[in-house]
Amino acid sequence: MQRLLAFGALIILFVGFSIASPYFLTFDNVIGILLATAVNGILALGVTFVIISGGIDLSVGTVLTVSAVMTGVFITNNHWPIWLGMLGGILTGGLAGFVNGVVIAKMKIPPFIATLGMLNVTKGLALVISGLKPIYFNDTPIFRSLAMDSIIGQVIPKLDIPNAVLVLFMAAIIANLILSKTVFGRYNFAIGSNEEATRLSGVNVDAWKIGVYTLCGLFAGLAGVVIAARLNSAQPALGAGYELDAIAATVIGGTSLSGGEGSIVGTVIGAFIISTLTNGLRILSVPQELQLVVTGCIVVLAVYADILRRRRK
Predict the structure, then answer these.
(1) What are the residues facing 135 on neighbouring strands?
(2) Average pLDDT, 10 consecutive residues per value, the chain (313 residues)
(3) Using an 8 Å Cβ cutoff, are 224 and 238 in contact?
(4) Is domain 2-312 given the CATH code 1.20.1070 in the classification?
(5) Burial of 157 (0-12, 13-18, 19+ CB in 10 A)
């Protein structure tokens, strides 16, 4: 029901902003919404797994940043092949997620505190490794082309959708298969629903928790590679605040903060709601501070709707 409500809200936003401004439904603006959703959506996919397991990850924004910076170091500074540099960036995110998982599962530190610490660690590492300066990919223009060119546009010239958007949908398909069709996904739901009962059933909860946070880190690393390619640079101070939008998208899409419930489809819808709302308010010249107020209110309402739904159950 909450996914249906979220989809209905997305349609209402599109219709409302289209009526309010003739520029909203222009092709360039819709592409802008899709590009904005690509990065936030990929981040939110990883956060979905974590929240379903009953945890939280506040570090995904800065893990994105350090992954982008490491991609820049590998490709620009070390002159690695592009595919290897991209893989290195993604694995950097996976390493950060693995450390989060170990700290939470083995040291029993609450996820909020553990990932808050990782937020500061990765934020500092991004600044130190980059030397406080952006790393540009001017010597490898094909890197930006991987995200901003359009495979679809080569087949259908009038449908020039950037490849970064396709990466989001492919990542969402993979995430949905993992969550709904694998043992990993079933244990993820089980841990979030009742961790102690899952442990008493013979499941190695600590190992699966580490896997969940590692997967979240891999998605954050992928988002870092995508945003670095989109901007043609690795900005060492860019990712702060991205974690809030990712969590907001996940919650708006119907994933319960209490754990044990959520879906990838809902998360993608939630990501589109956040991007559409931000874009529409910007077109209507609403001040940025008021945009944050509106987004915050929507997140609170989404959480309250989840609480009411659980009470009825």
Answers:
(1) 234
(2) 78 90 88 91 96 94 95 94 95 97 95 95 94 91 88 80 93 95 95 93 94 97 94 88 89 87 92 91 85 82 76 72
(3) no
(4) no
(5) exposed
From 241, 216, 227, select the one nearest 167 (Cα to Cα): 227
Number of residues that this document lists for the chain: 313
Structure tokens at 285: 């010249």
User: Domain residue spans in the chain?
Assistant: 2-312
* Cα maximum dimension of the chain: 59
Please give the Cα distance from 92 to 94 (Å, whole number): 5
Which 3-state string (H, E, C) describes the chain?
CHHHHHHHHHHHHHHHHHHHCCCCCCHHHHHHHHHHHHHHHHHHHHHHHHHHCCCCCCCHHHHHHHHHHHHHHHHHHCCCCHHHHHHHHHHHHHHHHHHHHHHHHCCCCCHHHHHHHHHHHHHHHHHHHHCCCCEECCCCHHHHHHHHCCHHHHHCCCCCCCHHHHHHHHHHHHHHHHHHHCHHHHHHHHHHHCHHHHHHCCCCHHHHHHHHHHHHHHHHHHHHHHHHHHHCEECCCCCCCHHHHHHHHHHHCCCCCCCCCCCHHHHHHHHHHHHHHHHHHHHCCCCHHHHHHHHHHHHHHHHHHHHHHHHHC
| CA–CA dist 259, 185 (Å, integer) | 13
**What residues form DSSP beta bridges with 233?**
136
- Please report, for residues 167, 286, 296, 297, the alpha-carbon distance to residue 290 in angstroms, rounded to integers and kept in the order given: 31, 7, 10, 11
The pLDDT assigned to 313 comes to: 66
Read off φ and ψ for residue 152, nearest 5 degrees: -65, -40
Nearest to 171 by CA among 45, 23, 308: 45
**What's the one-letter identity of residue 209?**
K
Residue 60, amino acid: V
- Cα distance between residue 180 and residue 264, in whole Å: 9
